[in-house]
Amino acid sequence: MKLLLTSNGFTDSSIEQAFLEMTNNRTDLKVAIIPTASDPIEWVPEKEGSKEYVPRLIPERKEKNAGWLNNYKGEWEEKGFDVVIADLKEEPEKIKEKLESVDVIDVTGGDVNYLLDWAKKSKLDTYLKDLLGRGVVYVGTSAGSGLLVPDIGLTWWETDMSMDHVGFGIVDFIVIPHQKESDERTNVENLTKRKKHLQSVINFPWKVYLLQDGQAIKVIGDNIEHIGSGAKKFI
């Protein structure tokens, strides 16, 4: 299995090098971009007075997001890769057909809760691990990295919440992207408190890697390496 779980993409030379290692420096490969997490959404009450929230697409941001995706696709193509878009809102069989034809799956950043919801609706959770076991390289950015972990709820989930927090569990660790000591939500002290809190109410045994921007977790087989610039932290 070859996984490159980044905080904010190919923003450090060591991350670029790790990808080249995973692909044997080849660019004559086919890449599927899964951009679903980047959909411009906001969470709104399911109905007036409800504590349940649902995602709502923001139409006025759609054009800007489409422009970003077109540019991002172009960056892959400029390097020589053949690129397809596999939006998880498409028909599940169509998505599966696309993903079974590629060498690299690139899952972009955005809203991890929204991504997880569509990943399960599309049945991606039923076959992604098999694809990766066959040698397909997985590249994740932020939310895309978080999709593979066993639990996405470290920073926000509480026992009275119904929102799904159970990730794919393809890896047996947690990643926190964009970690900053200046961010109250993601500094080491508060994340340590959150981990202890969750361990008191649910089974939460996993190591947590704190990814600053410019960092990634590189997984090749059983080997796990925290790469990139800056201090390498975990709890």
TrEMBL record:
Pfam families, A to Z: Peptidase_S51
An annotated GO BP: proteolysis
GO molecular function terms attached to this record: serine-type peptidase activity
UniProt superkingdom: Bacteria
UniProt KW keywords: Hydrolase, Protease, Serine protease
Similarity-based family: Belongs to the peptidase S51 family.
The protein, known as: Peptidase S51
Native source species: Candidatus Nomurabacteria bacterium CG2_30_43_9
